[in-house]
Structure formats: structure tokens, C-alpha cells
Amino acid sequence: MRSESRNTALLVMDLQNGIVSRFTDKQEVLLPLKQAIEAARSHDIPVLYVRVAFREGYQEVSPNNKAFSAVAKFGGMTESDEATQIHSIVQPQPGELIVTKRRVSAFAGSDLEVILRASGIDTLVLTGIATSGVVLSTLREAADKDFALKVLSDACLDADPEVHRVLMEKVFPRQADVMTAGAWIESLNRHQP
């Protein structure tokens, strides 16, 4: 049996200030995610942070893109903007990579796939905000790229609890193993040499 830590990465997606700020009880809702990050680190599983941000001037934003053209029109969400920095509750440690994407999927406009392939990663554990945004888009694209996938249901958040439930119970299981952060951590501890 191969060690999970040798070919797995934990993706922490869109846990940036401007997105996390939409939730009132950050400590409570981010606890499963924080526990998953700590478990990954203790099992030598790389933790990769993904954020959405744009260059000053928004050269990457097409007027045809409904969501992001509004951002370009009203400003904010640039690479240096406080809203695009990783939230302090889940702050990266030195040496942990932050990947900047330009669209909803973690792969769109980023070098994520190059990093994963160069590191021999073939299994992704997905976490993030929002379930119906970055998690859904990344899951679909990662499945098409033949990554094995796990989704930590309580380490993903969505403003609409019903959408979150439907995705976790009916959509994601077609392409990923869906489990809680606690179940994933327990599986890591069981397979520890």
C-alpha cells in the first residue's frame, strides 16, 4: 500500500479575507478546515492555498465575464488588495505555496496543474468557499484531468445550505469520495506507519 502523503495534496481554496468575511462565526465554521490543515501538515501532506486575484488594471477580465467584469468595474480583488490575502485563521506556514487563479476553478489561469504534476501529486483533497463555486468548478476540472478526489464536506462552505447539501449528497459522489474532515483525519491516523 502506498503512503497517502506521498501523492496527495490538500487544497485550501478561496479562504481569503474578502470571502471569509461573509461568514459571522469564522472560528466555528472554519474549525474543520483548520483541523484538516493541521492533520495534513502532521502527515507531511502538502497544503496548497488557492486564491482568486487580478493584476492592477484587470487585464485578465473580459467584459463578457459577468461576475468578474463587475469586480473590474468597481475595483478591488487585485493581487495586493487585503481582500485577496489568505485569512489569518488558516494562514499558510513558510514554504506552503499560494496559487493565484484568475477564474472560479483553481486550475483556471493558474500554475496549479504544473505544480501538482511536478510534485507527483495524483490525489486532491478539496476544501474551500464556496461549495457551488471554487469547489464545484475545481472538482469537475480535476476529475477531467484524472486526479483522484476527496471532498471534505464540513470543510467546504456555501451561502446556500441547500445547494451545499445537494452538491455533497448527489453531485460530488459521482466523481469524488465525500467525507467529513474528521473521517479523513481518522483514515490518515489509521494508515500511519
Summarize the entry for a quick read.
The chain has 193 residues and is α/β, with parallel strands linked by helices. It has helices at residues 4-7, 17-20, 26-29, 31-42, 66-74, 112-118, 131-144, 161-171, 181-190; strands at 8-13, 47-52, 98-101, 123-129, 148-157, 177-179.
Describe the structure.
By secondary structure, the chain is an alpha/beta fold. It has one domain (4-190): Isochorismatase-like (Rossmann fold, 3-Layer(aba) Sandwich). It has helices at residues 4-7, 17-20, 26-29, 31-42, 66-74, 112-118, 131-144, 161-171, 181-190; strands spanning 8-13, 47-52, 98-101, 123-129, 148-157, 177-179. The protein has a six-stranded parallel sheet, sandwiched between helices. α5 links the parallel β2 and β3.
